[in-house]
């Protein structure tokens, strides 16, 4: 196994709008992050992934970029950004930037020029087509609802947008566009960043002729079979790797909705020279019911989740690839509300889930606030929702006549909305949880008096210190990083257990996923002389044997066996 810093590290994702506001305008900013670098250092993380801070009209909170080499005014200046990089590097923390190059904002200069005429040099930077008598060029739907095409009267043609109509898709077939993107990436790398997280990067290559989609075939929105892992995506990533990535000691992780494990392995197999890791989505899509995110989640069984994570562990191990480990981010509900229990066992279940993320094979990603067990928001009215994805999709349902009032859907919104993850970090129990002295751009979760950083830091039993322990264990025990993975108790519906093995040492991980109290039985064929408890979320006596364990609700234990 090749040793790499990005395999040994732990990544912390910052969604800047919601992290910390330094100037009282209600919006998190770069100086706000700088104020908290000591906090990140205390947690012990190795890498920060910063969600977009580039110039943007904020149709999709910065994922609609109007200038790749400028900082959004609301977040600060390029000098602030440089100060942040310096502050992180001084603490030995690396910085990876979000790279959003499937699309730009419609306010990006390239698009402003592109839309002006049919024969300007930037026309072909985007995907323009004639309509079919009064209808768009094909039946593709946007991932945020509605048609994926927007008519533009200036030239009488439609442009493709897989996300909002203010996010036109770039045309990767165009060599000049690709060169411009590589130049821009090189410019950031030369400023000293340590890598990229690449937004929906497996969508960049569209099938020739842009054929109509078939809802029976596509894995996502109508038409998705013609751009998810599209025909030239590997060619483009190899080119990007050769021209840019390979010249630096950096890490790369590609966000890849609907990618399968077989395809995923191709993106990360080291000898193919594409990316280091992918964010796969199978385990954050598996609980969707028949109506997707417009309906209740389906009941899931632990074996459903295990099957998915197991498949990725085994596949990438076979191919010498590397996993990224996450259960939530700025697009997903809070992990403790979704996979754990955000009420009675909030603390225990948050620690149990953290144990999973930090002991599987791969690089763990912590989403801001996860380390204090932040929960979903009890949204009561659609007026509290800011997310374009939630709002667009609900408005579409309303237009179709499926609902009268958007507020009928609040159950669904409370479960699925991306805004659950986007409420401000709860720093303390003062007004607005210490996030801002002004009015926050999105409401603070009312549980902030109970759940906040200050309280966590004052309690040695808090989720925060459990994360700190997990992170330092990773540094002390190479088996956690480099050990082989082997699933135990495959069919157990309560317990997720596995072994990691490295040079004669074994790591045994036992996770009780629910509030019941199942009995754990150690499989007979696991032999060892000595056991050492490395971490647990309940008090456990060192003498206790491990052949049989009566597990507590959401109990997690990690043993080293010799
Ligand atoms: C990715 C981002 C998400 C964004 C979308 C379009 O999925 O994570 O926040 O809305 O791409 O850029
Ligand atoms: Ca601010």
TrEMBL record:
**Any single Pfam family the record assigns to this protein:** Alpha-amylase
For the Glycosyl hydrolase family 13 catalytic domain, which residue ranges apply?
Answer: 13-422
InterPro entries referenced in this protein's UniProt entry, alphabetically: GH, GH13_cat_dom, Glyco_hydro_b, Malt_amylase-like_C, O16G_dom_2
| Keyword Isomerase included in the entry's annotation | no
Subcellular location as annotated: Cytoplasm
Q: What is its main location?
A: cytoplasm
* UniProt KW keywords: Cytoplasm, Glycosidase, Hydrolase
The molecular function GO annotations come to: alpha-amylase activity
Task: Name a single GO biological process.
Answer: oligosaccharide catabolic process
Q: Which CDD domains match?
A: AmyAc_SI_OligoGlu_DGase (cd11333)
A GO-annotated cellular component: cytoplasm
The text of the family note is: Belongs to the glycosyl hydrolase 13 family.
Tell me which PANTHER family the record gives.
ALPHA-AMYLASE FAMILY MEMBER, OLIGO-1,6-GLUCOSIDASE 1
- Name listed for the protein in its UniProt record: Glycosidase
């Amino acid at each position: 196994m090749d040793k790499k810093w990005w395999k040994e590290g732990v990544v912390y994702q910052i969604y800047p709008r919601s992290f910390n506001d330094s100037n009282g305008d209600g919006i998190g900013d770069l100086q706000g992050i700088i104020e908290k670098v000591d906090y990140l250092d205390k947690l012990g993380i190795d890498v920060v992934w910063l969600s977009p801070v580039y110039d943007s009209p904020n149709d999709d909170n910065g994922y609609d970029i109007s200038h790749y080499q400028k900082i959004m005014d609301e977040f600060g200046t390029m000098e602030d950004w440089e100060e942040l990089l310096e502050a992180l590097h001084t603490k030995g923390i690396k910085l990876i930037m979000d790279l959003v190059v499937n699309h730009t904002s419609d306010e990006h200069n390239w698009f402003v020029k592109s839309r002006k005429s049919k024969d300007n040099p930037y026309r072909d930077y985007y995907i323009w087509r004639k309509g079919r008598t009064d209808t768009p060029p094909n039946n593709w739907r946007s991932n945020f609802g509605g048609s994926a095409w927007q008519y533009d009267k200036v030239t009488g043609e439609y442009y493709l947008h897989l996300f909002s109509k203010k996010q036109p898709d770039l045309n990767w077939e165009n060599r000049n566009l690709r060169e411009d993107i590589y130049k821009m990436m090189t410019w950031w790398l030369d400023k000293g960043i340590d890598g990229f997280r690449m937004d929906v990067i497996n969508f960049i290559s569209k099938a020739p002729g842009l054929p109509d989609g078939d809802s029976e075939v596509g894995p996502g929105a109508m038409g998705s079979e013609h751009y998810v892992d599209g025909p030239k995506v590997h060619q483009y990533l190899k080119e990007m790797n050769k021209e840019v990535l390979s010249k630096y000691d950096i890490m790369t992780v590609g966000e890849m909705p609907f990618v399968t494990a077989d395809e995923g392995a191709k993106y990360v197999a080291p000898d193919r020279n594409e990316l280091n890791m992918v964010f796969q989505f199978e385990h954050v899509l598996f609980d969707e019911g028949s109506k997707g995110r417009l309906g209740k989640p389906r009941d899931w069984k632990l074996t459903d989740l295990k099957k998915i994570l197991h498949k990725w562990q085994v596949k990438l191990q076979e191919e010498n690839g590397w996993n990224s480990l996450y259960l939530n981010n700025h697009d997903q509900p809070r992990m403790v509300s979704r996979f754990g229990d955000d009420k009675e066992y909030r603390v225990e279940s948050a620690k149990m889930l953290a144990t999973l993320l930090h002991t599987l094979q791969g690089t763990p990603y912590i989403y801001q606030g996860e380390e204090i067990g932040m929960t979903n928001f009890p949204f009561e009215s659609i007026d509290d929702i800011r997310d374009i994805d939630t709002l667009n999709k609900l408005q579409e349902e309303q237009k179709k006549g499926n609902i009268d009032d958007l507020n009928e859907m609040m159950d669904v919104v409370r479960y699925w909305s991306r805004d659950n993850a986007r409420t401000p970090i709860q720093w303390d129990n003062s007004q607005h949880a210490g996030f801002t002295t002004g009015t926050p751009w999105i409401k603070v979760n009312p549980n902030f008096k109970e759940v906040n950083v200050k309280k966590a830091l004052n309690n040695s039993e808090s989720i925060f210190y459990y994360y700190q322990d997990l992170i330092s264990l990773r540094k002390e025990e190479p088996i956690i990083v480099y050990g082989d993975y082997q699933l135990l108790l495959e069919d157990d519906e309560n317990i997720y257990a596995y072994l990691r093995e490295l040079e004669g040492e074994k790591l045994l991980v036992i996770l009780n996923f629910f509030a019941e109290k199942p009995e754990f039985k150690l499989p007979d064929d696991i032999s060892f002389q000595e056991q050492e408890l490395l971490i647990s979320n309940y008090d456990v006596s060192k003498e206790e044997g491990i052949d049989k364990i009566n597990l507590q609700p959401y109990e997690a234990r990690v043993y080293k066996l010799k």
